[in-house]
Write a structure and sequence with these properties.
Blueprint: H1 5-10, H2 14-19, H3 25-47, H4 54-72, H5 74-78, H6 83-103, H7 106-113, H8 116-126, H9 129-134, H10 137-152, H11 156-162, H12 164-186, H13 197-220, H14 233-284
Helix pairs in contact: 3-4, 3-7, 4-6, 6-12, 6-14, 7-8, 10-12, 10-13, 11-12, 13-14
């Protein structure tokens, strides 16, 4: 969780982040298992003569690569030394990885390739009461935004820096809540609650204040929010600007994806209406 002496004294350089890698066994195993399971699903589909979308494969590959960079590179090695490095890791684990995961449609792939008993179990899980609660847009929004507030505006960040299990749980939380929130907004897997596109944009905009409030609180604080783990106020202000800026960029990217999905959905609906009108005309003739 902490870097070497050079990182502590002068702060990690770009070369440190790029080349000073470490092994995080837990994260590496999770990434490997996820990649293998996804590859097995794609292979099974190919054996049945069906082609899985290359864009979805690329999305999963990007998610796994981002997770490796976040946990195995210098970002993972030095995230305990500087808050701004921690923010970069948080952006990868809580925003980039979840976004690419939901765009890779892992649940749809599993439903198309798993054995019948597994498919039934997955369908029951998706439509279960807990899943309905967790995938409700308001609940997903609260878990995503509330987690940001809890991590950065409470002592949790200091506790996580001193306690490895808590540190791991925080990482798991940002990945899972980010995935849940983005699955509601831009995911293509089947969910019990799938709000219309206009509502998705409103939900996304409603999440903007979380980044703004947390960023402003970090930027304007007169003392470090995690004095034991990150005692430098200048470091905190750099992290605040990074957090705020990444949040704004994230909002624009997700909004663009929602608008594109909306446009594609309208095109498919128009094409379907034209086919139905043409079929009706042929039936009348």
């Amino acid at each position: 969780m902490s870097g070497d002496t050079v990182g502590r004294v002068s702060g990690p350089s770009a070369a440190d982040l790029a080349f000073h890698w470490q092994i995080d066994p837990v994260a590496l195993v999770l990434v490997a298992v996820t990649g293998v399971l996804y590859a097995v699903g794609v292979r099974r589909l190919a054996r049945r003569g069906r082609r899985w979308s290359p864009a979805r494969i690329a999305a999963m590959a990007g998610a796994l690569a981002a997770a490796i960079v976040a946990t195995q590179s210098g970002i993972g090695r030095f995230e305990g030394d500087r808050l701004w490095v921690h923010m970069a890791q948080h952006a990868l684990l809580g925003l980039v990885v979840p976004l690419l995961i939901v765009l890779s449609a892992p649940l749809t792939l599993a439903l198309q390739t798993a054995r019948p008993t597994t498919r039934q179990a997955l369908r029951r899980a998706v439509h279960s009461a807990p899943a309905r609660v967790l995938t409700h847009p308001v609940v997903a929004w609260c878990l995503f935004g509330g987690g940001l507030v809890a991590i950065y505006l409470t002592p949790l960040l200091d506790v996580a820096a001193r306690n490895d299990p808590v540190h791991l749980l925080v990482h798991a939380h940002v990945v899972l809540t980010g995935t849940l929130f983005l699955a509601v907004l831009v995911g293509v897997d089947p969910l019990p609650h799938r709000p219309p596109f206009g509502a998705r944009l409103l939900i996304l905009l409603a999440a903007v204040p979380f980044h703004a409030v947390v960023g402003l609180a970090l930027l304007s604080a007169g003392s470090p929010i995690a004095p034991d783990a990150y005692p430098r106020l200048s470091d905190q202000r750099t992290a605040a600007g990074l957090f705020w800026g990444i949040g704004e960029l994230f909002t624009l990217v997700v909004a663009g994806i929602i608008l594109r999905q909306w446009w594609l959905g309208e095109r498919r609906a128009e094409a379907r209406e034209l086919r139905e009108a043409r079929d009706a005309a042929m039936a009348d003739s």
